Amino acid sequence: MKGEVVFYRLFDVGASVDLDEIQKTIDMPFLSGRFPTERAAPRYARFAQPLLVFVDERRLATNLGPLTASIAVKLYGVGALAVVVRVPFQAAGLRDLRPFASLKIKDASREENLDGYCGRLAERIIEDLVPFLHDAYETKVDPEPYTVYCISVSETPVREFTTTWRREVTALLANDPRPEAISDEEVEDTWRNWFSYYQDDLVVLEWDAALIVEPSATYEDTLTVFELANLQLLELRTYDAFLDKVVDKAYDDLEDLFARSSFLRSGHDTVKELAEIRMDLAEATFQVDNISKLWGDWFLGKVYRACVRKFELDSWRKIVEEKMKDLSEIYEVAQAELEARRLLILEFLVVLLFVVDVVLIAFRG
Q1: Are strands 144-153 and 209-213 parallel, antiparallel or unpaired?
Q2: For the chain, is the Cβ count within 10 Å smaller at the N or the C terminus?
Q3: Domain match, 211 and 250 both
């Protein structure tokens, strides 16, 4: 069999990115948001439109021997980089593909895994992006990895993958060296998420890996679905971590606002900061949800919904929404306290003016 292994490493850059500003300032290609597809799809289907900021083909020394790799880096406006490494393969069977899951890059002085190699590449690009970063936040999360095994030439009919090779596919996607030891329940769980449009193609997806069998090698649209679903997972994880810090700080600020020693402080800065954070996060989560519009009972829509279920994106959204709700409640309490203080100060000024007026009348009389 022949094909390629597509490795994704998605990194959050810690800020939103103005793609229009980059386009006007730097000469670089702009990727189309809609890839050509042979499969039926509604015209309203839309993908996010990233900027291709780096592309290269290089010969790499690896623990699997010399490999030719195509490397691309795509930048998304929500504040993420997708590093995509594509390596062609020729193998006798699925078991021969499993070592790719532990790919390591070698040079004269060291050997590093793909996370470290892609991380260094992402860091260099992020340094160049500093002038175009906005609404920065200091939250570090691990990059989101995903591996897709794409088979375009196979002597085995695709239907054998769904029958006699089910256990082998499960082991490959789980990076397990013992396919024969995997339980029937685990095999069934993996094969709950498989799709086929034509009689000779197949898509099977798992938590951090997927298999595509496509004789025509036209699977860019399916790869894009995997990329965007992983991008949404990365950003939701990032917002969750950021909200942990923000909510903790908001509780501390609220406690300080109610402290007796701060009675004469207006609290305006605290309320303003909470309001700005709420607005920024609301906009950011909207952009994440708007990355893809993949609805309907059609092929890519079904693949995307399977990703949503497998990656538990709805659970992550719910967690973020609950923390946003906590932040909103803190803001409302702080706003109410601020209004109460304003009214109290106003009443004090009214009484003070009344007393001054009485004193002036008594003095003149």
Answers
A1: parallel
A2: C
A3: no
Sort strands 80-90 and 194-195 into parallel, antiparallel or unpaired.
Answer: unpaired
Q: What residue type is assigned to position 336 of the chain?
A: A
Domains of the chain: total? 2
- In degrees, rounded to 5, the angle at the alpha carbon of residue 200 between the alpha carbons of residues 173 and 228 is 50
What global pTM score does this model have? Answer: 0.84
Range of the domain at 131: 2-218
Phi-psi region of 312 (alpha: psi -120 to 50; beta: other; left: phi over 0): left
Shared-domain flag, residues 245 and 208: no
Question: CA–CA separation, 312 vs 316, rounded Å?
Answer: 7
* H or E, element range at 119: helix 114-129
Give the tokens for residue 280: 């920024």
- Does residue 140 share a domain with residue 69? yes
Q: Is 206 in the same domain as 136?
A: yes
Q: Which amino acid is at 320?
A: V
Residue 176: which residues within 8 A CB-CB, separation 6 or more? Answer: 170, 182
Beta partners for 52? 74
Does residue 263 share a domain with residue 158?
no
Using one digit for the tens of pLDDT, what is the confidence trace for 107-155? 877 889 999 999 999 999 888 888 888 877 788 899 999 999 999 999 8
End-to-end CA distance of the chain: 108
Beta bridge pairs of residue 111: 106
